[in-house]
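User: Working on a comparison across species. This one is IclR family transcriptional regulator from Rhodococcus erythropolis. Can you predict its structure so I can line it up against the others?
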Amino acid sequence: MPTHEQSPAMVARVAALLRALGASEPTGISTTELGKVTGLARPTAHRLLTSLAAEGLVDRDARTGRWSLGPELYLLGAAAGNRYDITDRARDIVDDLARVTGESAFLSARRGDETVCILSQEGSFPLRSHVLHEGKRFPLGVASAGLAILSHLPTRDVDDYFARVNLESEWGEIHSEASIRERIESTRVTGYAVNPALIVEGSWGMGAAVFDRNGRPDWALSLTGVETRFRPARHAELGTLLLEYAHTLSNRLKTHAVI
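Assistant: Here's the predicted structure for IclR family transcriptional regulator from Rhodococcus erythropolis:
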């Protein structure tokens, strides 16, 4: 039986597995791949997955052996959606943002030190960036949505974030603390964040934070596309639109409390 000290570590391992499974949808992921992604030994990952499968929280394809999220999580998610899901209130805004700009539009939610894309709409322009999609997670400060959210957090929260994460080790020198802090300052000046193809060459993104009724930046609207569609001369136009739509959604959420 786990000791009191071991229990938090066990919960963290299970949470890491479930997040990795979510990121692998809809194709699923093997036990070995899960171990690499989560930093768990393969036997440990397999033992936890087997226990989760017994509870219906994960499922395994008998033919391929790949794991995916289980049916019990759907039921739990449906119940939690009544408290946390804002997609119904944001769908028309995301759709309109894509229609007006021609770019792919997204809504991302903050979850701890990450953002996860929860809603998307493709634009009319035929060339698209495929960096972001529903279910995709990025650390705060990496993609434009996470940069917009991080930039609007209190300075103490930003300092605490950099004290516990090292983005440079995984995302390269361009994501060093100093580099991200420079982008934070720029975002605070304009109000919107710009990702100048820092994740995938030629794929640009811009984002604006969406606030809850207490003024917390818990979501972000963003646009992605190819570099030729995000020339500097167009930044002000796209940034202004993002801020306007983000403001509209923030005001909408103030009248419908979301926890």
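For your comparison, note: The domain at 6-75 is CATH 1.10.10.10 (Arc Repressor Mutant, subunit A).

User: Helpful, thanks.
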